[in-house]
Design a protein that fits this description.
The protein is an alpha+beta fold. It folds into three domains: about 110 residues; about 120 residues, Jelly Rolls (Sandwich), CATH 2.60.120.1440; about 80 residues, Phage tail protein beta-alpha-beta fold (3-Layer(bab) Sandwich), CATH 3.55.50.30. The protein contains eight helices and 20 strands. About 30% of the residues are buried.
Length: about 325
């Protein structure tokens, strides 16, 4: 997606940034001395001066609530620089709230990444925003997308990959004596010499075939009518405990496979779903504080190498503004 105004918009100071900074400053001030009557009166006057003030302050509170109870696990030390994975920042009054939120969200992200049952089962995994190519024992290759984990179980009679979470593309080496199966959400996608992707969407699994033939059956306990055969360009989804749905077809620019080329392709996707899809590729959180039902669907192409710029361009084309509170938190409103 191109946006001719993106560079110009980013170069012009936005008065909302000053309001956002003031809201963060007030939040920090009231957290530190909520019994000061003079400060409370000054704060109420600031809120009443402009409707944007209350909206900005509500955003800071919403962001704090998003971090949940993790906030109490951290203490801010004025003599220690706040450290994020991307860069160092000196801790100041305006960045203290952001630093604390970054720490809270970092712990949340780390906790999700270190989900103990998944960690114990996984042989290979990626973090949010990471992609990794894995060479499998038989010469096959698995390309792991963002926030993905797989377990590998090979034997003399079969090759089985359990997709524990996320999404992966498989380039399967031919071996007629050992079927190649990918298990996800109780279903199985079996191939012989092919290229296909499997995604665990939480409540729905999706299989997309880039080349060759794949037989999808779900759930595993049921045979016959629960199985469908996919060929190049076909895709199908299924839910746990249900048979595969109707087979669809994709073209060469399929959104389902764009990530392997370093792209996110959004084709008429509802705005809230588009934000959630983008959020999969960023450590932390993109927080949408707008009525998504009033926003137009999204058709866009975003580069994974310049994702934050794409987010800002997407927001601008929908009349929204993005505030970067920390490296881990973007607020879109």
């Amino acid at each position: 997606m191109t946006n001719p105004n993106e560079g110009r918009l980013s170069d012009v100071p936005d008065p909302r940034d000053a309001v956002d900074a003031a809201a963060q400053d007030w939040f920090l001030r009231l957290e530190g001395d909520d019994g000061d009557a003079a400060a409370q009166a000054e704060f109420r006057a600031w809120l009443a001066a402009d409707p944007r003030h209350k909206a900005a302050y509500d955003e800071v509170q919403a962001a704090w609530n998003a971090a949940g109870e993790l906030a109490s696990a951290f203490a801010i030390d004025d003599e220690v620089a706040t450290v994020t994975p991307m860069r160092r920042r000196r801790l100041t009054r305006q960045t203290a709230v952001g630093g604390l939120l970054a720490a809270c969200l970092a712990l949340f992200v780390a906790g999700a990444a270190l989900d103990l049952p998944t960690a114990l089962r996984a042989d290979h995994a990626t973090a949010a925003g990471e992609q990794r190519r894995v060479a499998l024992p038989d010469g096959s290759t698995a390309l792991l997308n963002t926030d993905t984990a797989i377990a590998v179980d090979y034997s003399t009679t079969g090759r089985r990959i359990s997709l524990l979470k996320g999404e992966a593309l498989f380039l399967v080496a031919k071996d007629k004596s050992r079927p190649f199966d990918v298990l996800a959400l109780g279903g199985r996608a079996r191939a012989l010499g092919t290229v296909y992707a499997v995604r665990d969407g939480g409540d729905t699994a999706e299989v997309t075939v880039a080349e060759g033939t794949v037989r999808v059956s779900a759930p595993l306990a049921v045979d016959g009518e629960s199985a469908v055969t996919l060929r190049t360009g076909d895709r199908v989804s299924y839910r746990p405990g249900e048979a595969p749905g109707a087979v669809g077809h994709i073209d060469g620019e399929a959104p389902q496979l764009a990530w392997r080329r370093g792209m996110i392709v959004l084709d008429g996707m509802p705005f809230a779903r588009a934000v959630a899809e983008i959020d999969r590729y960023r450590p932390g959180k993109v927080l949408l504080l707008a009525d998504a039902t009033k926003l137009e669907p999204v058709t866009a192409r975003l580069s994974l190498k310049a994702l934050d710029g794409g987010i800002r361009a997407l927001a601008a084309t929908h009349g929204l503004h993005v505030t970067q509170v920390t490296d881990y938190l973007l607020i879109m409103r």
